[in-house]
Amino acid sequence: MKLFIDSAERELLEPLLKTGLFAGVTTNPTLLARAGVKLKELPEFVSWARATGAETVFVQAWGVTVEDYLTCAAELVETCGDVVVKVPATPAGVAAVRPLETGGVRTLLTAVYNHVQVVPAIIAGATYLAPYLGRMNDAGLDGVAEIAQMQTVIDKARAAARILVASIRTPDQLAGLAMCGVQDFTIAPKLWWELLSEPLTDAAVGVFDANARELLS
């Protein structure tokens, strides 16, 4: 199981990456804009993330056509090195996956919203596919159930593709998906602290600490 951090803000990324508990960083144009990272600054940001502890960094290609995505991906790999290139789960995006993967570029199909889309993702050979749980729920879908079906499709097909769930809003959602066999998640930095928030644990630690102090006296 792997956790990634969904952010491009260095002050939020640095303390988490230095724990060694996160496999890397996921970005998109929205997150880069929020962090004030210009496209010309992206290679430096990726280098910084790697040096800070990110084994894998995801960056998003842009465009409309297959050729757009292939050209953009080539530029991203040339300037940023071994990154996972995100392309949308559109006909053009899916068609770009096969030549990228064949050429040694790992890909992630992003904005996957139903289990049917998993089939072309598997056929294309995508390394990852990313459903947006929160947005699925906002649209009236049962996001956890739909993603569970995605995992079932992958398991039944014995495919190598991995689901990387994004837009997770509560710890219970993440745990529920883990129970369905999902292995990879990207989370906002604040959700990490929520995963570790448990009053009973805090109370137990308080008792342990008090008892330890008594032993030292």
Q: Could you name the key traits of this structure?
A:
single chain, 217 residues, alpha/beta, eight-stranded parallel β-barrel, globular
Description:
- With 217 residues, the protein is α/β, with parallel strands linked by helices.
- The protein is built from eleven helices and eight strands.
- It has helices at residues 10-17, 29-35, 42-52, 66-80, 91-102, 118-124, 133-138, 143-157, 171-179, 189-195, 199-216, and strands at residues 2-6, 24-26, 56-60, 84-88, 107-112, 128-131, 162-165, 184-187.
- Strands 1-2-3-4-5-6-7-8 form an eight-stranded parallel beta barrel, surrounded by six helices.
- α4 crosses α5 (91-102).
- The longest helix has 18 residues, at 199-216.
- The radius of gyration is 19 Å and the shape is globular.
- The model has no long low-confidence stretch (mean pLDDT 95).
List the helices and strands and how they pair.
Blueprint (H helix, E strand, L loop, with lengths): L1 E5 L3 H8 L6 E3 L2 H7 L6 H11 L3 E5 L5 H15 L3 E5 L2 H12 L4 E6 L5 H7 L3 E4 L1 H6 L4 H15 L4 E4 L5 H9 L4 E4 L1 H7 L3 H18 L1
Parallel strand pairs: 1-2, 1-8, 2-3, 3-4, 4-5, 5-6, 6-7, 7-8
